[in-house]
Model the fold of this input.
Amino acid sequence: MNYSATRLLELTSRELDRFRANHAESAVLHERARISLLNRVPMQWMVHWAGGFPIYVAHAEGGQLRDVDGHEYVDFCLGDTAAMFGHSPPATVAAITKQLSSGMTFMLPTPDALVVGEQLSAHFGVDSWQFTLSATDANRAALRYARAITGRNKILVFNHCYHGSVDETFATLDGDKIVAPVTSLGPPVDPAVTTRVVEFNDVPALSEALEKGDVAAVLTEPALTNVGIVLPGEGFHARLRDLTRRHGTLLIIDETHTLSAGLGGCTRVYGLEPDIVVVGKAIAGGVPAGAYGFSQECSRKAASVTSMVNTDSPGVGGTLAANALSLAAMRATLADVLTAKAFESSIALATRWTQGVASLISEHGLAWHVTQLGCRSEYHFAPQPFTTGAEANAAMDHPLERLLRLYSLNRGFVLTPFHNMALFCPAHSLQDVDRHCEIMDDVLSELFKR
Ligand SMILES: Cc1ncc(COP(=O)(O)O)c(C=O)c1O
Done:
């Protein structure tokens, strides 16, 4: 069923009025930021929150968040995965509190470094870990290593991927041309120079793109999560692995979001065999941290290329990378927060939400579907699951997404400012999930009423 554009505008305008009326304190802070912050926000994507300005956070704990106007929210955004197991998990807080008074950064390792390396190896089945402050940095470094190891300069990504602000990955297909997406700010070079792009799940195109023998690495999420969720088709990963091996191309699996699938992310759940694994966001419970690790064979090559670069500034790294505070946070989070039990309860909530949303889609006669990847779930404005990023991108409807998010926000639920994703943590309850489905029922009834 289709909605009336006029009705959508009316509802959005009514909800914006309600948002402004209820968020006076946030509005004052937003106005005060006019001079001190670019476009009044500390990060540009904060402009995109559904109310026209962001709510300012006073406190967050577990699955809840309180704003400076005193409203309590159930937080299904969870820092867009960075707080995937809830805000300020007690074990992480205890570890960083202890570390705070013992020094935070030294340019020297603490014993936590090797414990975290061992923990990450146990999760993802690859070794030889290196640390960064973000998943973006980990992807950048992984690409540098891949070029150094293979002596090749191109990388390959899938259309509508996102791997953080990594220059080479800001490349998209326009017909058969590779171009910078319109959203890319100041691209350094034409991305066709650095990057090949093919559609996810398109094995013939992948095969053709690798055949030239000049691609250092394929960098991919195991399932796309940044253009809605696009799951890999039957046998896609096996073909991807075969082709990359056959053409001497390294396979970098970015688990930053797909960690939601369960312990060890999709690498473990799907039984993948990457050359390099990248992780970030949730692994330190909210403290900035990223990491990348190498398969045994790749790690020998990585060690050999680094021994040839006799410099302290090889193009990867950062003074604060592997700092003691991030490592203490990762150690505690990996040991006590990111546990099988935590996944079990979060995934159960995601399943309940997925079922609830699927029922609403059917009751309202909508040609939509909902996709779950562990404790992450998302609905899409198209009847069938997608096979490519282009299909998923074409189904997006930003005004509609905005209304759905704003309506929820006005009724105590925070969802990401991008597409229709919800994340669940052990601190959420079945009541939270069911209440959100009721709210979704209300907005759909208002929007689609005849
Ligand atoms: C798959 C993936 N990789 C990497 C990143 C970058 O993470 P960060 O912004 O924490 O560097 C993101 C961010 O959303 C992501 O979705």
Observations:
- The radius of gyration is 22 Å.
- The first strand starts at residue 57 and ends at 61.
- The chain is about 40% helix and 15% strand.
